[in-house]
Amino acid sequence: MEEKPFLSTREKFMPYCKIFVSTFFLLATTSMSVAQKPLKIYISADMEGVAGAVTEQQLGPAGFEYQRFREFMTAEVNASIAAAREAGATEIVVSDSHGNGQNLLIEKLPEDVKVIRSWPRALGMMEGIDSSFDGAIYIGYHSSTHNPEGVRAHTKSSAKLTDIKINGQSVSEGIFNAMIAGHFDVPIIMVSGDDIAVKENRDAIGPIEGAVVKEAISFHSAKTLTPQAAYKLIAEKTKSAIQNIEKYKPLKTKTPVTVDISFKHYRAAEMLAFMPGATRVDSHTVRYIAKDMIEASRYTTFVLGYDSNLSP
Fold first, then answer.
1. In 149-170, which positions are buried (b, 16+ CB within 10 angstroms) versus exposed (e)?
2. Ranges of H-type helices in the chain
3. What is the rounded CA–CA span in Å between residue 43 and residue 135?
4. Mind listing the pLDDT tens digit for each residue in 80-93?
């Protein structure tokens, strides 16, 4: 019988070491692959729904609290961004969608975030969204102009409009924007704002996450969280939404799209009725048939933004 050569302890365990090392690198590579999977999130930020915002004093450059509330708006967006990153987001685009579109303090946003500012934009508050995004988030949203409740409730223009309908349904900015996102098969996954805005969006879009940062008392009054409490809640709801992103569905709209815009004054409707494709359906309302939500958004942008006195 031939005698087997003596094997050292190192030689005996070498095959097992190789298997262990190979398995370790395989698991590490798989883990890195999962961690680096692209996850794009779109954030549309308004201001009326920011914690503490109740009147024009917080919402425009002439207001005595506007500069402070730019800080709060930016911090709410940052809370959502940080939570989104923690939950796996790899790319984030933020749309500054309030007033003049120049509210966010961009130097306080993370350096790898891209920001959309000012107007006009064909897709309005959703400019820049496309089918590459996995989900969209609303920060600081409010309820619609046809809703009798909600802080600073309006749709597109509190000064000009009494209603916007899509295919016969009155819509808020959030619902209109969800329809734009739905055109690209992108779901809305979270909304922050007052309790009326959150309910209105959830009723129309589905059971998305909602961060109620204040409870509406009237058009100009609310019981509100403090800024720090709002940031914590927004982060919590953002993280939950992204962790469960697969369960949210885009809001799809039947085409062609019937757009009815009702004005507070009849003259705007009278003039717009001269446009090819536009029909005046009553004294204050003009109807337009768009091929899809992109055309519907472009038409709405034109109607609310055109002025013959426009200049550079």
1. bbbbbbbbbeebbbbbbbeeeb
2. 9-35, 56-59, 66-86, 173-183, 195-205, 227-243, 266-272, 293-305
3. 9
4. 999 999 999 999 99
Structure token digits, residue 137: 């988030």
CA distance 220 to 53: 9
Is 154 catalytic? The answer is: yes
Which of 66, 67, 72 is closest to 51 using CA atoms?
Answer: 72
Domains of the chain from N-terminus onward: 38-154+172-247 (3.40.50.10780)
> Where does the pLDDT of residue 9 fall: very low under 50, low under 70, confident under 90, or very high at 90 and above?
low
Q: Are 151 and 216 in contact (CB under 8 A)?
A: yes
Q: Under 8 Å CB-to-CB from 59, ≥6 apart: which residues?
A: 47, 48, 53, 66, 69, 98, 99, 152
Q: Are strands 209-218 and 221-224 parallel, antiparallel or unpaired?
A: antiparallel
Comparing 272 with 35, the larger pLDDT belongs to 272
State how beta strands 114-116 and 209-218 pair: unpaired
> Which token pair is 161?
């409009």
Contact 76, 192 (CB under 8 A): yes
| Ramachandran class of 155: left when φ > 0, alpha when ψ lies in -120 to 50, beta otherwise | beta
The single residue of 154, 183, 220, 284 carrying the catalytic annotation is 154
